[in-house]
Amino acid sequence: MSRRVSQENRHKKLYYELQEKGELREANLQAARRFFQSDERARIHKNQRTGKLNTRQLVKASTGSREVFLQDRTRKVLKNTVVQVVVDISGSMAGTKVVYAAHTCLIINKLCELFNLNTEVLGFTSAWSGNLIHCVYKKFGSRMRDDDFLDGFWSSLKHMNQNNDGDSILFARERLLNTGKDKRKIMFVLSDGLPAGPRGDIETFTHDVVKKIEKEKWIEIYGIGILSKYVEEFYKDHMVVWDIRELEKSLLDFFKRVMYLNCS
């Protein structure tokens, strides 16, 4: 059996073995739904210039004030937000890490679908020649069935080699910027360790790319470490997946904080 075929079958088998053991649990998004629909989190902002008319504040209109409207906070947070997931499928991710990464992608996508957020899912690695390989598992504006994603994901693992994070993030950045100027843009980068490649100081370059994106503020970029805390060295805001059984809760907590970050 060739290396390419064995990588696909090996990880597919591992995925279903972990599923049978109950470690890869089906996403139950009721907690997310309750959170974003609760009176506490979906509370209104008063004294807004646009929104639903606040009849209790009509007296202000007589004084010339335009701040007599109410706005739903959650609707404001989720409106016009696009999410991009960029996952490392390099050789160091082989085994449990890449299986965890696949499951993480599925749950993030389900969270985004729950609130109708436009989402894209990409993978990155490099060929033995050093040329970058970008896998597009889901494009913006499309739907993604779990089975279709997993089939494409396992197949792409035949390319597992090195991870040039910096250049791959720049590739993803251009696609994300093309979603429109009025959109709030969020990028999640899933990785397990230090960038690696055949040419140049890729680690420093990745640092520079991430800092540039964080500084320019057109895109909000977050690192998600897969059984590794190296994301702490590259991303100002990050989380680490250590226990796949706690993945859904940890991701939901992270997702909630990210969605409300920078949104008053």
What's this, in brief?
By secondary structure, the chain is α/β, with parallel strands linked by helices. The protein has 9 helices and 9 strands.
Biggest β-sheet: strands ordered side by side in the sheet = 6-5-4-7-8-9
Helix content: 40-55%
The ordered string of helix (H) and strand (E) elements is HHEEHEHEHEEHHEHEEH
Q: How far is the N terminus from the C terminus?
A: 56 Å
Q: From the structure provided, what is the oligomeric state, counting identical versus distinct chains?
A: single chain
Strand content: 15-25%
Give the biggest beta sheet.
6 strands, mixed
Number of β-strand runs: 9
> If you compute it from the alpha carbons, what radius of gyration comes out, rounded to the nearest whole angstrom?
21 Å
What would you say this structure looks like, in words?
This protein has 264 residues and is an alpha/beta fold. It has helices at 3-20, 30-37, 58-61, 73-78, 96-114, 146-156, 165-177, 202-216, 247-260, and strands at 44-48, 52-53, 69-72, 81-88, 118-126, 132-138, 184-191, 220-226, 238-241. It has a six-stranded mixed sheet, with helices on both faces. It has a three-stranded antiparallel sheet with strand order 1-3-2. The radius of gyration is 21 Å and the shape is globular. The N and C termini lie far apart (56 Å).
